[in-house]
Amino acid sequence: MCYGDVTGVISLELGAQAPGNYENTPEGYGCYGGVDYGARFVRIFIMDCFLKVYGCQMNAADSHLVSRLLADAGIREVSEPSEAQAVVLLTCSVRQHAEDRAWGFARTMRGLGKKVILAGCMGKLRGNELVREGAADFVLGPDEYRRIPDLLLGRDGSGQGNPESLETYGDLLPATTNSVSASVAVMRGCNNFCTYCVVPYARGPERSIAYPDLERQLRYLLDQGVKEIFLLGQNVLAYRHGDMKLIELLERAARLEGLDRLGFLTSHPRDLSCEMIRRMADIPQLLHFFHLPLQSASDRVLKQMRRGYGLAEYEEKIGWVRSAFPDVYLSTDLMVGFPGESEEDFELTLDAVRRIGFDFAYMFAYSERPGTKAADMAEKVPVAERKRRLAELIDRQNEVTRRRAEGLVGTEEEVFVAAPAPRGKGAMLAELKNYRPVILNHTARLGQRLQARLVGLRGRSIIAEPLAKEVA
Ligand code: SAH
Ligand code: SF4
Ligand code: F3S
User: Fold this and answer.
1) Cα–Cα dist 136/106, whole Å
2) Which domain holds residue 97?
3) Of 56, 63, 234, best ligand 3 pocket probe by most atoms within 8 Å of the beta carbon
4) I need a surface site. Which of 26, 77, 231, 402 has the fewest CB within 10 A?
């Protein structure tokens, strides 16, 4: 047994997977390998670990890479922290609340005697403080995930490692999945330095991953039955590797066998061009879904945020998107209470929400982030006022979301069955061709495409009933 220094439990799990599925097993980790008992495969696990993920879709995609690193090292992921000897947190620093939650969870886990690795954006930004306060056994940034298995298994006690390293993880494959929808980070980091945002400090400069590495990851997911893939980046329109830009990447990815639905996140409105939209409209697999964070509809505030566009330019681009994709599902991010935001600025945002008619919005109250430009700006909006504006904005957007959903009731649409519904037995989460989520009032096979009638609303969610015929 090569993990002689490990005192954790050894768990055996009988799985139906063939040993050949583990082609990514690093050479030299022989003890992790399997014993083939006919059709059954025995995996030996030497530690149980709970992985907790906070933050954005990039962190969710990273969690699949971390899962792969854990599995390859013989560490089993469990679904309850109580079952684990160790806990790994992939953290987020974008708002104070996200940090507070991770900090609290890490403390509780340490109090229960678990080994705690706090990794991700907060690890990079708050490392020294976290170590000093004893919030975790090890603290790692988003470019140091490869060290997680060794730290868990007690093979590397060197603490914080090299927080200056820059990674793409291009050579890694994500963990195996049963899901029909998946995401792949095609670039990491951000160069934009919007004045409120910690991401460029936490994730470092933009780096794009080479196409051959991406194709390996995409094919790997498609081979497992994934049908829908999102290409991710904090500013995905800035993808560039050699001569390849995002539009060429989308065109090539769409040609991969088995890929039915292709999306991309997150688009910076400044970088969206008419030419790009025109070429996107020629990609049959591309979801008619655009997430274009507006943040604020006041040009004065946008300038202070250093977003690089004004409201008129934003609305012009929405016009291009709508004429190329008349059935587009449009979502955005909005922030209220940025330093200096007046009542008039805020009302411009309220008006824009109604005029533009977003189908969905993520909405936030400004949270002051140490080290960012905005943290030094005078004219802070009082916290209670930020909360009031947020509540009013949410009410306004909910009204718009509902109105836009109501317009679809009574129509027949093709739906893609994406996942079991989180609540309610016998229901499934499905998506229209433009990615709009609906609740399908029936069980159906994951990945199935079928015709459904949109029969009504429950809250703001659209309820769909399948018609008899299956599309695929
Ligand atoms: N890269 C994406 C956004 C990443 S962060 C983009 O540029 O659109 C996701 C969202 O969190 C942002 O769009 C913004 O609305 C919000 N956000 C970022 N920093 C914040 C802060 N300091 N306070 C409140 N919300 C913030
Ligand atoms: Fe943050 Fe702006 Fe980069 Fe988005 S584009 S991650 S908001 S700095
Ligand atoms: Fe949060 Fe880091 Fe994403 S700060 S929003 S997890 S890039």
Assistant:
1) 6
2) 48-152
3) 56
4) 26
Pick the last residue of a domain from 361, 377, 405: 405
Tokens at residue 420, please?
């079991």
Q: Are residues 252 and 115 in the same domain?
A: no
Please compute the mean of the pLDDT values over residues 432-450 and round it to a whole number: 94
Evaluate: CB of 349 within 6 angstroms of ligand 2: no
Give whole-number Cα distances, 96 to 14, 222, 390, in Å: 42, 37, 16
Specify the DSSP class assigned to residue 174.
P
Indicate which ligand has the atom closest to the C-alpha of 99: 3
356: nearest Cα among 383, 328, 384 = 328
Ligand nearest to the CA of 120: 3
Q: Is residue 234 located within the same domain as residue 366?
A: yes
Number of domains in the chain: 4
Do 206 and 265 belong together in one domain?
Answer: yes
Task: Give the CATH number of the domain where residue 443 resides.
Answer: 2.40.50.140
Q: So what's the pLDDT on residue 196?
A: 98
Beta bridge partners of 263: 230
**Mean pLDDT throughout 385-404?**
97
- Assess if residue 165 is contained within a domain: no
Q: 15-37, pLDDT tens digit by residue?
A: 333 333 332 333 222 233 333 33
Same domain, 375 and 241: yes
188-226 burial, b at 16+ Cβ within 10 Å, e below that, comes to bbbebebbbbbbbbbbbebbbbebebbeebbebbbebeb
* Whether residues 100 and 21 fall in one domain: no
Compute the average pLDDT of residues 5-17. Answer: 38
Quick one: which atom of ligand 2 is closest to the CA of 333?
Answer: 7
Residues with CB under 6 A from ligand 3: 55-56, 58-59, 92-94, 121, 198-199, 202-203
Decide: residue 180, CB within 10 A, 0-12 exposed, 13-18 middle, 19+ buried.
Answer: buried
The radius of gyration of the chain from alpha carbons, rounded to an integer in Å, stands at 23
Q: Is residue 395 part of a domain?
A: yes
- According to DSSP, the β-strands at 207-208 and 187-188 are antiparallel
- List C-alpha distances in Å: 248 to 115, 208, 245: 44, 13, 6
Measured in degrees and rounded to the nearest 5, phi and psi for residue 139 equal -125, 125
Residue 58 CA to ligand 2 center (angstroms) comes to 13
Residue 162 inside a domain? The answer is no
Whether residues 286 and 310 share a domain: the answer is yes
Here the CATH number for the domain that contains residue 133 is 3.40.50.12160
